[in-house]
Amino acid sequence: MKNKVKISILILSLLPLLAWAEDGSRLWLRFSDKPQQSKEIITTHRSPTMDIAEKELASHWNGKPVELRLDKKLKRLKDGYIIQSDKDKICLSAGKDAGLLYAAYHLLRLQQTGVDTENLYIEEIPSYDVRILNHWDNLNGSIERGYAGRSLWKWEELPGKLSPRYQEYARANASVGINATVLNNVNASPQILTGEYLHKVKALADIFRPYGIKVYLSANFSSPKVLDGLPDSDPMNKEVRAWWKNKVKEIYRLIPDFGGFLVKANSEGQPGPQDYGRTHADGANMLADALKPYGGIVMWRAFVYSPTKDDRAKQACLEFMPLDGQFRDNVIIQIKNGPVDFQPREPFNPLFGSLKKTAEMVEFQITQEYLGFSNHLVFLAPLFKEVLDSDTYSDGSGSTVAKITDGTLRPAKVTAISGVVNTGDDVNWCGHHFAQSNWYTFGRLAWNHQLTSEQIADEWIKMTFTPDEAFVKPVKEMMLTSREACVDYMMPLGLHHIFSSNHHYGPGPWEEQLHIRRDWTSRYYHNADAEGLGFDRTKTGSNAVAQYFPPLDDTYGNIVTCPDNLILWFHHVPWKYKMKNGRTMWDELCYRYDAGVKQVREYQKIWDSMQPYVDEQRFQEVQAKLRLHARDAVWWKDGCLLYFQTYSNLPIPYDIERSAYSLEEIKKVRPDIRIYK
Ligand code: GCW
Fold it and tell me: Distance between CA 317 and CA 339 in Å, rounded?
């Protein structure tokens, strides 16, 4: 009895602590919970989506009454809305229920970031129709390139047991306007298309629907053969075509608003139409035809490359340009932002703008496969913006990747943008508190690609931590410089893919012959020799520069005009080549690596000085991650400089910190002890 009392007292005394536990699970959704003024919410009609909008406002909105008005005449806004305030109320109007939900979240964001809501007139139309996350989640619960625990989808429990996180996930996405999700890995198990799994998918789709989110699936091209024993999966085989038609029918019976398929075909061992001598267009069109009657789409990936062919950076164009105009209008070619693979810095993929008669969409990677996993603080808005704002010159000056893909320059039936997401079942969703900002950023840019990195960082910090300027200013500075810092300590001046190939985390420039595939070794990309460093993609080399429209082909192709930050991407540069700032390439390389390390050291100091503004748990967790981050940055700098020095035979400038380890010691750092969770 006595013990029971003691335990109850203990629990009671812990309650306030628990209520304030800041474990990051609430993401940026820290709306105030105590409405002080009127909570009057007026709605024109009822629906599951309206109920959510109303509930969010009723529980968190502190201002004057809000009217939610569905106005069918506002179709031109697509998923967008108008927010307008007058003397006694704020009116949210939209052509769709989802638009009203987005408007409600917008209003709450204004409140949370301290914006005056007295005289509002805001009109928003999203940049893209389909704002879609790609989960590389496997059916066994693991996540390819996931660094935040296991999959959110508990397939073994579905459809009977529904984790509360499914709804929280949908809410977080809706709050930033994300309206679509591909649930499974592009390296797709055919299993996902079995009746058993489709019922599980339906359960998720039912939860996501009121939040305006449609479900899509990655399809394995061999599904007809693997699942139902057809002799092949040839897209010209009538039986195969009928199989897909039936499968699609079965899906729509369960999920009437199913979005469509994402396909990785004939890439890295995945099956595809080329197995039967058919083209990517043949394969994509077969699926498109099956989906067409229901309004579904096919996102067909351009990430295809083979070790036997040309420079890997050229292969997307080589494969897809001859097929331009052959795709159905419900097919979109999904193109990774760069021509190789989500490196810290790449030029934009030259396929953007090159297809004149085929819809194109960008694939970004939100999960930090090549950017220090969820251990490094790297804010990705500057990377995403750099790509979206890149001028391809395809239709003359001003033909940015954004304008090619958002329908401005290429009228498209549907426009879309995708991001390989970084979520997992970790309490804080993304593994690093700051990695949440990248999920947030993807949503915000998909909604409005004209937002600046600064605006996005500002909002996110205020919502996630505090609007106190003493915190916002230094932390914003840290976020905004963090991507460039990462480029510097990993792969400055256009270096790329010099990772240790078995984990893509630490340095591995010394990996010269680990794989049968040449294009999976670092040497293929950096080409260090006694003369210099870098991949010659000019006329004397692979001539990948020729895939860019004028004047970029010349700008990149000429070592004098090529921007420093891409010089080793396009040129094999002599060690003593004079860079634009007068330093030799070797010295500049050394200083860049060093600058990256110094920057991360600075972040440690900034963060420590932020302690008074942050709750203890998140403070400690970020502090611990920054320690790893700093150690890794040093590991990168010392490993790469000592290795490249064996070719340059030049001294590391004397004002740069020396390595405490020899190259041989650094090479022995085991990958597994570096992959901290
Ligand atoms: O970046 C590479 C990854 C693979 C991934 C592949 C792809 C899903 O290392 O893990 O596979 O790209 O995008 O298909």
Answer: 9
Among 144, 262, 312, 346, which is best to mutate for testing ligand 1, by the most ligand atoms less than 8 A from CB?
A: 144
Catalytic residue flag (residue 268):
yes
Superfamily for the 130-453 domain: Glycosidases (3.20.20.80)
Binding pocket residue ranges, ligand 1, CB within 6 Å = 136, 144-145, 186-187, 264, 268, 303, 341-342, 369
Query: What was the pLDDT predicted at 501?
Result: 83
Q: How far is the CA of 371 from the centre of ligand 1 (A)?
A: 14
The candidate with the shortest Cα–Cα distance to 93, out of 109, 108, 76, 110, is 76
Nearest of 327, 450, 376, 384 to residue 634 by alpha carbon: 376
Measure the CA–CA gap between 509 and 342, rounded to whole angstroms.
Answer: 17
Nearest to 393 by CA among 385, 404, 380: 404
Tens digits of residue pLDDT in 314-338? 999 999 999 999 999 999 999 999 9
DSSP state string for 593-640:
HHHHHHHHHHHHHHHHHTGGGS-HHHHHHHHHHHHHHHHHHHHHHHHH
* Active-site residue, 88 included: no
Number of the ligand 1 atom closest to the C-alpha atom of 420? 13
* Omega cis (within 30) before 551: yes
Residues 6+ positions from 618 with CB-CB distance below 8 Å: 22, 23, 24, 433, 465
Domain segments of the chain as ranges: 23-124, 130-453, 487-535+572-675
Residues in Cβ contact with 579 at an 8 Å cutoff, skipping those fewer than 6 apart: 564, 567, 585, 588
First to last CA, the chain: 42
What CATH class is the domain 23-124? alpha beta
For the domain made up of 487-535+572-675, give the CATH fold.
Alpha-d-glucuronidase, C-terminal Domain (3.90.1330)
Same fold, 130-453 and 487-535+572-675: no
Of 136, 145, 370, the one to substitute when testing ligand 1's pocket (max ligand atoms within 8 A of C-beta) is: 145
pLDDT for residue 676 = 44
Three-state secondary-structure class, residue 174: helix
**Active-site residue (options: 268, 512, 608, 657):** 268
Ligand 1 center from residue 119 Cα (angstroms): 48
User: Catalytic: which of 369, 406, 511, 519?
Assistant: 369
- With beta carbons less than 8 A apart as the criterion, state whether 193 and 219 touch: yes
Residue 32 binned pLDDT confidence (cut-offs 50, 70, 90): confident
pLDDT digits (tens, 9 = 90+) for 500-546: 987 899 999 998 876 667 888 999 999 999 999 999 999 999 999 99
CA distance 558 to 600: 33
Single pTM value for the model: 0.96
Ligand 1 atom 1 nearest Cα: 341
pLDDT band, very low/low/confident/very high, at 15 (cuts 50, 70, 90): very low
Closest CA to 300 of 330, 257, 275, 322: 330
Q: Which of 341, 363, 594, 632 is catalytic?
A: 341
CA distance 470 to 493: 34
556-614 tens-digit pLDDT: 999 999 999 999 999 999 999 999 999 999 999 999 999 999 999 999 999 999 999 99
What pLDDT shows up at residue 520?
86
Percent of the chain with pLDDT over 70: 95
341 flagged as catalytic: yes
Q: Whose CA is nearest to atom 2 of ligand 1?
A: 341
